[in-house]
């Protein structure tokens, strides 16, 4: 019954977290918000329609989507008054009073690090985000992101086995973009889908910046991988700074527009990182607690064992190169190089980039 009342409170139009919390503080329990007269609601800054809604029976405010949510076996609610409400999130300026959950609720109280970035990243950026997420997940961190295209999706994929939290800008019963439906299903196996929006809330532009405050609010820190000026991921990073969280950024080429966001963050005080170890060491006491679970650091001599592939590897950079440039550097014909590049790409040593160019892949950090 209590869940129904919380859902009803969330259905009152325009009643955001600040006024919801004011109601709870005034009346002490969510049930009492619906058991009081209009006069007692004066002075809380409520609109006439909101006061009228609080005079109704809670069940009258529920939608068919709410009923389906309550009856489903794979949905859950985390309320402001629950003992496992995320402690870090509780201390942001406007924490949501109700979280809609699908998946592993225990992820709420694990050490979380957010990874965010461009929706249109380079192949190298995608590979970097996935590698960092995998390595940090193996070290004991739960990876959070926003299930968006690009870096968000790569971060979730990298942390599927270790556990990841996807914070949605829609209702938790709707997946956006729809192309990530299978990814979302995979996340619920070892991770968690989370939203502050009531069931069946469709995507709207204003909801995603609000979603970002939860991504940072849940997390010990935020890592930015490729972001142009004006990127939504920079909003998440700014919110993290305001919330007192650590902000990390991976530098890139000075010629790439996608490096401008991370470079600006670094100028503003974000930590420049080149490996997962850089992040773990900055997290202080947490790093020590996770040390026993941390995988061995990769060899700095990470390179192909095949002599010819090693020669090609040595001739390449982490910035994209045309096959003609690579061939000239390592003394091979384009015909010889073509087969080698294909084989190295299949083995995960390099990645094909736009314009027919290639660059090294960073090893798992």
TrEMBL record:
<dbReference type="InterPro" id="IPR003488">
    <property type="entry name" value="DprA"/>
</dbReference>
<dbReference type="InterPro" id="IPR041614">
    <property type="entry name" value="DprA_WH"/>
</dbReference>
<feature type="domain" description="Smf/DprA SLOG">
    <location>
        <begin position="80"/>
        <end position="283"/>
    </location>
</feature>
<protein>
    <submittedName>
        <fullName>DNA-protecting protein DprA</fullName>
    </submittedName>
</protein>
<dbReference type="Pfam" id="PF17782">
    <property type="entry name" value="WHD_DprA"/>
</dbReference>
<dbReference type="Pfam" id="PF02481">
    <property type="entry name" value="DNA_processg_A"/>
</dbReference>
<comment type="similarity">
    <text>Belongs to the DprA/Smf family.</text>
</comment>
<dbReference type="InterPro" id="IPR057666">
    <property type="entry name" value="DrpA_SLOG"/>
</dbReference>
<dbReference type="InterPro" id="IPR010994">
    <property type="entry name" value="RuvA_2-like"/>
</dbReference>
<dbReference type="GO" id="GO:0009294">
    <property type="term" value="P:DNA-mediated transformation"/>
</dbReference>
<dbReference type="InterPro" id="IPR036388">
    <property type="entry name" value="WH-like_DNA-bd_sf"/>
</dbReference>
<feature type="domain" description="DprA winged helix">
    <location>
        <begin position="302"/>
        <end position="356"/>
    </location>
</feature>
């Amino acid at each position: 019954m209590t869940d129904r009342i919380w859902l009803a409170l969330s259905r009152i139009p325009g009643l955001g977290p600040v006024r919801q919390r004011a109601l709870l503080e005034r009346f002490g329990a969510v049930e009492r918000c619906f058991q009081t007269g209009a006069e007692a609601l004066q002075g809380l800054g409520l609109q006439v329609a909101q006061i009228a809604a609080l005079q109704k029976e809670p069940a009258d405010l529920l939608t068919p989507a709410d009923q389906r949510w309550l009856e489903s076996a794979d949905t859950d609610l985390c309320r402001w008054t629950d003992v496992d409400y995320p402690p870090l999130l509780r201390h942001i300026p406007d924490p949501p009073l109700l979280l809609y959950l699908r998946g592993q609720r225990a992820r709420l109280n694990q050490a979380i690090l957010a990874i965010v970035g461009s929706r249109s990243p380079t192949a190298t950026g995608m590979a970097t985000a996935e590698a960092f997420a995998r390595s940090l997940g193996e070290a004991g961190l739960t990876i959070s992101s926003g299930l968006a295209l690009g870096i968000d999706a790569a971060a979730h994929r990298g942390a599927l086995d270790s556990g990841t939290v996807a914070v949605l800008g829609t209702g938790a019963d709707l997946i956006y973009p729809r192309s990530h439906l299978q990814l979302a299903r995979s996340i619920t196996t070892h991770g968690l889908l989370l939203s502050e929006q009531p069931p069946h809330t469709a995507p709207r532009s204003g909801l995603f910046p609000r979603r970002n405050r939860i991504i940072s609010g849940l997390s010990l820190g935020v890592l930015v991988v490729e972001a142009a000026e004006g990127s939504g991921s920079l909003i998440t990073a700014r919110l993290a700074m305001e919330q007192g969280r650590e902000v990390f950024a991976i530098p890139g080429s000075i010629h790439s527009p996608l490096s401008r966001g991370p470079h600006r963050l670094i100028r503003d005080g974000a930590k420049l990182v080149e490996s997962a170890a850089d992040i773990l060491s900055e997290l202080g006491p947490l790093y020590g607690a996770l040390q026993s679970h941390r995988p061995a650091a990769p060899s700095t001599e990470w390179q192909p064992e095949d002599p010819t592939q090693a020669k090609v590897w040595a001739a390449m950079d982490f910035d994209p190169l045309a096959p003609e440039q690579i061939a000239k550097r390592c003394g091979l014909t384009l015909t010889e190089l073509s087969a080698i590049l294909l084989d190295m790409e299949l083995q995960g040593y390099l990645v094909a980039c736009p314009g027919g160019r290639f660059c090294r892949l960073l090893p798992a950090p």
